[in-house]
Design brief:
The structure is a single chain. This protein is about 30% helix and about 25% strand. The chain is α+β, with helices and mostly antiparallel strands. The chain folds into four domains: about 250 residues, Ribosomal Protein S5, domain 2, CATH 3.30.230.70; about 70 residues, Arc Repressor Mutant, subunit A, CATH 1.10.10.400; about 220 residues, 2-Layer Sandwich (Ribosomal Protein S5, domain 2), CATH 3.30.230; about 60 residues, no CATH class. An eight-stranded antiparallel beta sheet has the order 8-7-9-10-21-20-18-19, sandwiched between helices. A hairpin with a 4-residue loop joins strand 20 and strand 21. The chain is globular.
């Protein structure tokens, strides 16, 4: 680079660039992640260069080739009429980050991808409990992916970036929060938990999990977990002897993540100490004042204890609503104009009554013990004509699973920053408002529905057959028909039943269970109570929602959300063991309904066509065998297929039935006979040449460019 100085004595070009990169206003800190024999990763936090008008902005790099920008802003005034914290987290995937042009019609980014929505949920879940309670100013966190190595995953980096920018913003935020993905990677030297693994390393791993937490004294408290077994886990475990992700192994992974989280939090704290804005005083709106709570507690506590001994949900809710109206009416004169406080205080008293009963008496809302499971029901083949269907009921939670099979060309095409471009197994989760007896919006899925569907999908994927074993695209739909706790884990159970009913040869049955947690001070000590198969009210009043899915041998998916500042890893390890006992019980119920795949439905596409062992080609078209009859419902390649789009040209990689004539079938003229000249690809096995065919008279008039090609073909064949 040439140095230069202008007439005004400005610094050289080289000096200017150095000033921009390392000027006094730019500050940074680094966290070095040591993975031993798998190498080191460097996470760099930087602020002061970009997005200077945001309340807080941070650039986060991983190994200098993946860069994310996180910006946190806050509204100047509280939102009126809001009784919750209006936090919004968004991810902007820029396709230029991977050197690509968007594949949409307008060639620009549109609605967020599923991967972006799931990344938003990963950030929201650990960050939301860290804000001061009662904040009503709108807070928005936007993470933009500016550059990415195709082999990297950005979602975990985004957790750290959002935490860093929020700390710099001056908001009342009790950070820092560190997030790390750890994968159990196997090589010739054994298995090891590797932090920030790449896509290529995940191919050799049996389990990976995203763990977010914060420093609590000398330990790290866990705030969020999202874990899954990989696509290759079954083969790695069964054929190569890799370590199976049992409950004990998963607990070891949680412990292995703690040092990495601590290093990330320390790097964030170091930068925040030098560059963060002073904490701004925001108005805080408490749900009620102490005098209102005392009055409601005195009037309702004893009656609520009796109400929450009613086992039936609808009867219990009716009694609770009646008592609420009674208490509100009786105290309305004393607290005139404070009806909202009375309602919020009643809910708080209800929560306290339920929690104390669990901790002291070991009795839950519906009278069950801490480890009891509600009544289970499993049934298959509940709908006509569909390829597979099932209903799974757990108490008042009812899930219907429906499976649809189709050719491989119907698999989902993915246009995102991930190197994964297609997906054969698609799981959709629907949660209509009538499932809780309410009215509401019906339409496109919300973030919650997308997240629940992704969780159920991750639980099933490790036991799916390979493409070669089962050459179908699979769509699984979970309909939450009735909800009272753990519809996502009910979807896992219903999916296992439905897939078996559709004839999908799963490698093992998968079941799921939702665990809860209640913690409080009892006799001066913090006591934890883990709950098996939580109700909706226990989810709302409890401190944790811990979902675990798996086979009888190992765990396939985990999701943890908490309202606490963090949960000790020992408590989570005990909850994992408790969940395994429940999962085995549910698997017994599923196996009693169906334990082997049924025959394919007569309405499903046939699995084998003629003598061609491939079944389908790369485009997902069924191969045409010698003895096959035309199938009007299938897309089979071959001369019998009359679809204009698929039949006008084709490409073969190995012989199947082919036409050995130069002209169409009306002439029955062998290739090369008479004065007609044989064209390439006609009358012999030129597998890689493309040819056009003439449609039958009744097939309709083809397009102009096809008519011109047919005319040229006829002239070459000697036709007039």
């Amino acid at each position: 680079m040439l140095d230069w100085v202008d007439a005004a004595g400005l610094p050289s070009k080289q000096e200017t660039e150095v000033t921009l990169l390392e000027g006094p206003e730019i500050q940074f800190s680094e966290a070095v992640i040591d993975n031993g024999r798998f190498g080191k990763r460097v996470i760099r936090f930087e602020t002061g260069r970009l997005a200077k008008q945001a309340a807080g902005a941070a650039m986060v790099y991983i190994d200098e080739d993946t860069a994310l920008l996180s910006a946190t802003t806050a509204g100047k005034h509280p939102r009126e009429g809001f009784d919750f914290f209006p936090l919004t987290v968004d991810v902007e995937e820029r396709m230029y980050a991977a050197g690509r042009i968007p594949g949409s019609f307008f060639r620009r980014e549109g609605r967020p991808s599923t991967e972006a929505i799931l990344a938003c949920r990963l950030m929201d879940r650990p960050l939301r409990p860290a804000f001061i309670k009662g904040l009503r100013n709108e807070v928005q966190i936007v993470v933009t992916v500016l550059a990415i190595n195709p082999d990297e995953l950005y979602d975990v980096v985004a957790i750290n970036a959002s935490s860093m920018s929020t700390q710099l913003s001056g908001l009342p935020f009790s950070g820092p929060i560190g997030g790390v993905r750890v994968a159990l990677v196997s090589d010739e030297n054994g298995s090891q938990w590797v932090a920030f693994p790449k896509h290529s390393q995940l191919e050799n791993s049996v389990f990976n999990m995203v763990v977010a937490g914060r420093i609590a004294g000398d330990d790290v408290a866990i705030m969020m977990v999202e874990a899954e077994a990989t696509d290759n886990s079954w083969n790695l475990i069964k054929e190569q002897g890799a370590t199976a992700p049992t409950e004990e192994v998963v607990s070891e992974g949680l412990e292995a993540a703690k040092p990495f989280i601590k290093a990330l939090c320390e790097a964030q704290s170091d930068l925040a100490a030098r560059a963060a804005k002073p904490t701004v005083e925001f108005p805080v709106f408490l749900d009620y004042q102490d005098d209102v709570y005392a009055a409601v507690e005195s009037a309702a506590a004893e009656k609520l204890a009796a109400v929450f001994q009613i086992a039936d949900k609808q009867e219990r809710d009716t009694a609770s609503d009646s008592l609420k109206d009674e208490v509100t009416s009786s105290l309305a004169g004393q607290f005139e104009g404070r009806e909202k406080e009375l309602s919020a205080a009643f809910r708080s008293v209800t929560k306290q009554v339920v929690r104390q009963r669990i901790l002291k008496d070991q009795i839950r809302i519906d009278g069950r013990g801490l480890t009891d499971i509600r009544q289970l029901t499993a049934e298959v083949e509940v709908l006509p004509r569909v390829h597979g269907s099932a209903i799974f009921e757990r108490g008042e939670t009812q899930i219907m699973g429906v499976t649809t099979l189709n050719m491989l060309k119907m698999e989902q095409q993915i246009d995102s920053l991930s190197p994964v471009t297609r997906k054969r197994y698609m799981h959709n989760y629907n949660f209509p408002p009538y499932s809780t007896g309410e009215t509401g919006r019906v339409g496109s899925p919300k973030r919650r529905e997308i997240g629940h569907g992704a969780l159920a999908e991750r639980a099933i994927v490790p036991v799916l057959p390979s493409r070669e074993e089962f050459p179908y695209a699979i769509r699984q739909v979970s309909e939450a028909l009735s909800s009272n706790g753990s519809t996502s884990m009910g979807s896992v159970c219903a999916s296992t039943l439905s897939l078996f009913n559709a004839g999908v040869p799963l490698k093992a049955a998968v079941a799921g269970i939702a665990m809860g947690l209640v913690s409080d001070q009892v006799d001066g000590q913090t006591r934890y109570a883990a709950l098996t198969d939580i109700l909706g009210a226990e989810d709302a009043f409890g401190d944790m929602d811990f979902k675990v899915a798996g086979t009888s041998e190992f765990v396939t998916a985990i999701q943890l959300d908490t309202k606490l500042d963090g949960i000790p890893a020992s408590v989570l390890a005990a909850a994992l063991k408790q969940a395994r006992e429940a999962r085995l019980h549910i698997l017994d119920v599923l196996n009693s309904a169906i334990d082997t795949p049924d025959e394919l439905s007569e309405f499903a596409p046939p699995r084998h066509c003629g003598q061609d062992p491939r079944g389908q080609d790369r485009r997902g078209h069924w191969a045409q065998g010698q003895d096959d009859q035309p199938d009007p419902g299938g897309h089979r390649r071959g001369h019998l297929h009359r679809g204009r789009r698929h039949g006008l040209h084709w490409r073969h990689e190995r012989p199947v039935r082919r036409r050995g004539t130069v002209c169409d079938q009306r002439h029955r003229q062998p290739a090369g006979s008479g004065n007609r000249r044989a064209l390439p690809g006609h009358g012999r096995q030129d597998h890689h040449l493309r040819r056009l065919r003439v449609p039958d008279p009744g097939q309709g008039r083809p397009a102009a460019h096809l008519r011109a090609a047919q005319d040229r073909w006829r002239q070459a064949c000697g036709q007039r």
